[in-house]
Design a protein that fits this description.
- The termini are far apart.
- The protein contains one helix and ten strands.
- Strands 1, 2, 3, 4, 5, 6, 7, 8, 9 and 10 form a ten-stranded mixed β-sheet that branches.
- The radius of gyration is 32 Å and the shape is elongated.
- Strand 2 and strand 3 form a beta hairpin.
- It is mainly beta.
């Protein structure tokens, strides 16, 4: 064999080996994983699918808003029983029923919303979320905290609910007869009790 022909065969064998090695990664190769063309992540459990999950927070804030879409692809109602985070306390508000064949958007002021109080992560850092359901296994996600700027500028946390004091009724002094005939104070009556002699 001639030297150029031997070199060409060796080069072809090396190229073929390199190509075949890429196929050896099996069915779990990165190219077979779901691709989320967005800033957030996705996950699923049974008929429930979470799309574009992320947390929006201001640079110097201690609260963040969970932004995501939850889809119930099943034939019956599902119920979100909880949402927790490893970086703060989650406050869920709204109707947690997930109707079949419907998508529920989570954002500030939506029908169902989640705010993370005492947030211990800043924009650019990773955060864990866990969604639990009545009839489906939990969905655990690792996602990012993104700054409340650009396309996320309008997503801000709702003010924390503070208990409002209920109006109090001040007691009024009334007199009533006692065994000794001296008046005593009570708050049960709004007007004096008449006495007879």
């Amino acid at each position: 064999m001639s030297r150029p022909r031997t070199a060409a065969i060796a080069a072809a064998l090396l190229a073929g080996t390199a190509l075949l090695t890429g196929c050896g990664s099996g069915f779990g190769a990165q190219t077979s994983k779901a691709y989320a063309p967005a800033d957030g992540v996705m996950g699923e459990s049974g008929p429930v699918k979470v799309l574009n999950a992320l947390v929006v927070a201001p640079e110097d804030g201690t609260e963040g808003v969970v932004s995501m879409t939850v889809v119930n692809r099943g034939t019956g109602n599902e119920r979100l029983t909880g949402l927790t985070s490893d970086k703060g306390t989650v406050e869920l508000t709204g109707d947690r029923t997930l109707a079949p064949g419907k998508a529920v958007a989570f954002t500030a002021g939506s029908r169902l919303s989640a705010t993370i109080r005492d947030l211990q992560a800043k924009p650019g850092e990773e955060i864990g979320l866990e969604l639990t359901f009545a009839g489906t296994k939990p969905i655990r996600l690792r996602t990012l905290v993104v700054p409340a700027a650009g396309p996320y500028a309008s997503i801000t946390a709702a003010p924390e609910e503070t208990p409002t004091p209920s109006p109090s009724v001040s007691p009024s002094a009334t007199t009533s007869p006692t065994a000794t005939g001296s008046p005593t104070e009570t708050s049960a009556s709004a007007s004096p009790t008449p006495t007879t002699s």
